[in-house]
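Weekly structure sync, notes
Attendees: PL (lead), two postdocs, one rotation student
Agenda item 3: pending single-chain targets
PL asked that the sequence for the first pending target be pasted directly into the notes so everyone works from the same version. It is reproduced below exactly as submitted, 266 residues in total.
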Amino acid sequence: MEQSLVTQLSARVARLESNNRRDRTIALSVIAFLIVTAQAPSPSTPVVVSDGTGASATLTAQGLVVRDKSDRRRLVVGLDSSSRPSLDLLDVSGGVRQTAYLASDDSPVIRQYDAAGKGRTEISLTGTAQSPQIYLNDSNGTARQLLSLTADNYPLLQQFDSNKKTRVELSLYEASQAPQLSLLDANGKKRVAVFEGVGTAIGEVDVFGSNGISRGAFVGNDTGGFVVMKDASQAVRVALGLFTDGTFGFELRNAGGSTFWSTPKQ
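Predicted structure, written out during the meeting:
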């Protein structure tokens, strides 16, 4: 009986010592946490790191600013008012020379600026297909050339005048992959087209009126060339060169398309 009581008392003492060790561990952990928290800066307090040259980096809740040894901002990383991330590189005058950010639709954009602050280059992904495009701008910040892929992954090169009108287009036909070059007037109307015929692989040059309607064409293949001139109703009035029967000749036609004069075909 006495031995049983001794055994029970020993077990209780062991449990109490174990509980005391656990309580001491928890208490020390809490004290350590309070000390670290007391020494750590407040979230609203900027963290500044600098080196011996005077260059520094400042971290706040809004972002990171890196300054050179002359205390000029050279790099800014942060979130804008709409919580979109951005990165700016600045020159010694404080002007932004390159920026990278996400647009309102979360598409990535990179822009480069000249010393006057005019945007000269823009690289981005656009549309639901996220097609790439590169804009080249003049010294006024006006787009003058665009290199892009269409939503269907076909290449397109466009050149613009100072009034932002497209004047040159170089592209591939979507179905045949045949190339075409278009020259447009100041009103955006196609006036000259150089292309490979769809399904024929024959080179052709077409000229158009100010209304965009074809008025003449020059076609060439391995056996010869052919020139046609059309009136406003698209009727061929002049035909010169290699005809479909394999002979060369020259024809003048009336408005109904009938030949009223021709040279002997050879």
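Discussion points:
- The longest strand covers residues 119-126.
- The chain has one helix and 20 strands.
Action: rotation student to compare against the earlier draft before next sync.
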